[in-house]
Amino acid sequence: MKYRKILLIVGSLYMLAVVASSCLTGRMNDKEMNSYFSKSLYQPKRHFYQALGRELHYVEAGDSSRQPILFVHGSPGSWDNFKSFLKDTFLLAHYHLLAVDRPGFGESQAEGAEDELKNQAEALLPILKRQSQPVILVGHSYGGPVIAEAAIQYPEFIKSLVIVAGSVDPALEPSNWYRYPLRYTPLRWAMPSFFRSSNDELLPLESELKKMSPHWGKIRCPVVVVQGGKDVLVAPDNAKFIKRQLPHVKVTTIWKENMNHFVPWSDPDLIVEGIKRATD
Description:
This protein is of the alpha/beta class and 280 residues long. It has a single domain, classed as 3-Layer(aba) Sandwich (Rossmann fold), CATH 3.40.50.1820. The protein contains 11 helices and 8 strands. Strands 1-2-4-3-5-6-7-8 form an 8-stranded mixed beta sheet, with helices on both faces. The radius of gyration is 18 Å and the shape is globular. The termini are far apart.
């Protein structure tokens, strides 16, 4: 009886999460993409590529001779979490813009999530290698530790990092008790695939962050942190953790006290400001 009550609670939380997350996980088809970008100077182009023995997907827009920026979404999410940035007139005038579907999401859904940060970083490597110069990485939420791991593993391909509401301090990770029933009970198969992927990669995140913690000293590029004081999903003190971990590089913090977790939608101008500072 107690077990069934737990499942009921978890199921209710799950349904609420699906509704709340629906704006984060849509797969934009070609017709929708063409319509959304119809007045943009550049129509985005889709690319499929191989990494980790699987097919993954990203989108690019703008002049490929300009400074490349790669946007990395959170969990759950998809490339089009950053669609407004890919038609931003300032960014298009100065940068080559790319946004990826991480493994398990968007057009990279097949085969599910990668639950190790080193694999998440490796999934970005072919995109980084295709660029003519080192890339500015912008990572939101779970995308924050992904781009930090990429900077640890592949520093030669990265110009700077913009970590937006990134969950990087293992000591600040919230309890994950409710994720176990979502992975190890039949309830798992009632979930959409994107939510299974999100649950699978978030469940081991604390242990993955512990593995990454001793290696922050390998990051050699400038870092910009964008963080809100009203973030209830990622502890705002993650910004302080990044500063402590990187005394050897320039770390710039853009702080807004009344900002929540959903910065790409609520405060996109702060991400643009972070990109400008990451370019200097």
